[in-house]
Amino acid sequence: MTYGLDTTFLVEVDVLDHECHQRAVRLRDRLLDDGHEFALTPQVLTEYVHIITDGSRFVSPASMRPAIARSRAWWNATEVVRVTATDEAVTLFHTWMEEHRLGRKRILDTMLAATYVSAGIKAIVSSNARDFGPFFPTVARP
Questions:
Q1: Using one digit for the tens of pLDDT, what is the confidence trace for 98-108?
Q2: 100 vs 106: CA distance, rounded Å
Q3: Which end of the chain is least crowded, N or C, by CB within 10 Å?
Q4: How far apart, in whole angstroms, are the C-alpha atoms of residue 21 and residue 29?
Q5: Rounded distance, CA 102 to CA 105, Å?
Q6: Are 79 and 118 in contact (CB under 8 A)?
Q7: What phi and psi values does residue 128 have, to the nearest 5 degrees?
Q8: Residue ranges of the domains in the chain?
């Protein structure tokens, strides 16, 4: 199975002092050991770089150069399938926003879900299971 990755998961895997770091690493390793692969979108990577370089979130945020290098490593990983938004994803996003009566705080996650679902991905790895539950049959949480 291919699991779409949410930004929360990338942050938890890569930020060593994150409270969920060990659980996220164990989940990553278990999924890979079981033969699964990951899907990743550019929007997740941009949010990831934004978060790990944010000094208001972390005592020791990453500087931009290492953050870009880590983003690049995720994008180029052999276990990662690259997924980009299509017209179908945008249509699905609009449909879900109206159908589920979602507000502005759900825009990015809904577009991410629509991007993955339109690419045939039926599972996501995220600490925000509640946000993705309506869109995926399987939400794996660290």
A1: 999 999 999 99
A2: 10
A3: N
A4: 12
A5: 8
A6: no
A7: -100, 60
A8: 2-85+121-140
